Amino acid sequence: MKRLNFLIAACLLVSSTAFAQDIKVAVAANLQAVIKVLGADFKQKTGITVEPIVGASGNLTTQIKNGAPFDVFLSADMTFPQTLFTDGFSSKKPVVYAQGSLVICSSQDIGFENWERVLLTARVKKIAIANPAIAPYGKAATEVLKLKGVLENVQSKIVTGESISQVNTYITTGVADVGFTTQALVNDPNNKTKLYWRVIDPKSYSPIEQGMVLLKHAENNADAQKFYDYMLSASAKSILEQYGYRE
Predict the structure, then answer these.
(1) Rounded CA gap, 49 and 172, in Å?
(2) pLDDT tens digits, residue range 70-102?
(3) CA–CA dist 56, 38 (Å, integer)
(4) 102-204 shares the fold of 2-99+208-242
(5) Cα–Cα–Cα angle for 41, 45, 47, nearest 5°?
(6) CA 74, CA 97: separation in Å to the nearest integer?
(7) Which of 83, 132, 211, 219 is deepest in the core (most CB within 10 A)?
(8) CATH T-level fold of 2-99+208-242
(9) What was the pLDDT predicted at 21?
(10) What 3-state class would DSSP assign to 22?
């Protein structure tokens, strides 16, 4: 009888393991650091593993349209998730899970009191910005530079990153003298580079409403639905706030 009970327990364990699914989450590059913390917290609560695929929101959208088997998409804006919903890649409308914050940042203490003037000086030779066509933070940076009336004058200095992750590398390694990025970089405890930065007035660019959508690939995946719900929970919002995101 003991042996029989053992075999039954073993079968149940194998069965539960076989049906457990890791979930694939397409993640905007500005969340590269925070998704690790969110994933760890979610796994602790549920036992479900999150596999993040990080990239520019526009590139991830293209991959999804081309059949990439992602379950949930965490974008850096609402436009790309809305496009996926409109085109039939999701049965649910996207929702906002966080508000992003744009900062100007450097590994040099060059002074940001009048940053638009600093960008025009010979001291700043390279300005890193994410590709505005596929990266919402790059689009926001371009809007700010236009509003300040300096975009044309600094155009020759701009170094375009494929995503905000690449921009962050340019900033932390000193490849670029200055960069426009997410506040998550300066709030990341794992970043060991001393950074000087200033929050850009949010009134000077369109709100960065970061959208989430549950993809059709995950319609029968209860674990993906749990992660979707988790991202709207108080626990997730608390972690996001630590990295500079707002509700």
Answers:
(1) 30
(2) 999 999 999 999 999 999 999 899 999 999 999
(3) 19
(4) yes
(5) 100
(6) 8
(7) 211
(8) D-Maltodextrin-Binding Protein; domain 2 (3.40.190)
(9) 65
(10) coil
